[in-house]
Amino acid sequence: MALVEHELMEDTSSRLSEAMPGDFLELLKPRVMSLVVFTAFVGMAVAPVTPHPLLAVIAVLAIAVGAGASGALNMWYDADIDAVMSRTAKRPVPSGRVTPREALAFGLVLSVMSVLTLALLANLLSAALLAFTIFFYAVIYTMWLKRSTPQNIVIGGAAGALPPVVGWAAVTNTVTIEPIVLFAIIFLWTPPHFWALALFKRGDYERAGVPMLPNVAGDANTRLQIFIYSLLVAVSGVLPTVLGFASLFYGAVSAALGICFVWYAWKVWQDAGRDEKLTAEKQLFGFSLLYLFAVFAVLLVDSFVLKIWG
């Protein structure tokens, strides 16, 4: 099978595709990119300065393009394993709508454009952080960690956690404790989020040969680690209030959301072997998306209120 897939990749890489604009948009992983853009914008919003609106728009667009470039490079390199996974087989490269060569060129061009835009119109610090984010996701995570260690998501989660730091740096030219806390929230959130997915998609990862934690350490160990990380997520979520850059209102909402997160993780841990449909895992996966969006949305509103009344 591997030989056939390799020959298929060589064949598709030697021709021009008939890709539509929507296929290249899909390479950018728009759903993932939207969350990246949102967290980056929150990182800018909580900063102690009010950026020029044009700078803010340009910075957000540059970060969005950089995130999309990472997705394109990921799809280029992972086309072989995407082809054997049910949830990714219809992506543009494994389906043949976009050739590997086109995906690589598209990702590289967007990477350079996004980094240069931040360097020229914002500052070198934010540009360097964006470049590191793209490199970490495309090279460290995609090319190395993903295929070599069950801790791929834990370490690789740093790439997805950096956008609010980039957003903060774009408007302040600094990195302080506040964006590091936002980084920590996303970094700790990533393992339980993806391991919940890995539990009910473990067959996909087995076929692709990706050493996700359930396939290597077993379900019981994965469920326990999900619960432990969920406790850390709940604690990290209230740190903005503890450290004084968010209100008590934010602290109360984030604490309630954190308790719900832990509850869903507890169900995953306790329901081991009881639910053949893996309902608890799917519930945690769905709630984890809501949790991250809600925490950052409340922090965004909170920061605007504090700036107006503070």
What does this structure look like?
With 310 residues, the chain is mainly alpha-helical. The chain folds into two domains: 20-173, Tetracycline Repressor, domain 2 (Orthogonal Bundle), CATH 1.10.357; 176-310. It is built from 16 helices and no strands. It has helices at 2-13, 21-27, 30-45, 53-77, 79-82, 100-121, 124-148, 152-161, 163-172, 177-200, 202-208, 213-217, 219-237, 239-242, 248-270, 279-309. 48% of the residues are buried.
Oligomer: single chain
Distance, first to last CA: 63 Å
The number of domains: 2
Q: How does the major sheet shape up?
A: none
Structural class comes to mainly alpha
CATH architecture of the largest domain: Orthogonal Bundle
Low-confidence stretches: 1-14
β-strand number: 0
Report the helical percentage.
over 70%
CATH superfamily of the largest domain: UbiA prenyltransferase
User: CATH first level of the largest domain: which class?
Assistant: Mainly Alpha
Order of helices and strands: HHHHHHHHHHHHHHHH
Task: Output the radius of gyration.
Answer: 20 Å
Q: What is the CATH third-level topology name of the largest domain?
A: Tetracycline Repressor, domain 2
Overall pLDDT: 90
Please report which band the strand proportion falls in: under 5%, 5-15%, 15-25%, 25-35%, 35-45% or over 45%. Answer: under 5%
Give the structure's gist in a few sentences.
By secondary structure, the chain is an all-alpha fold. It has 16 helices and no strands.
Name some characteristics of this structure.
mainly alpha; transferase; 79% helix
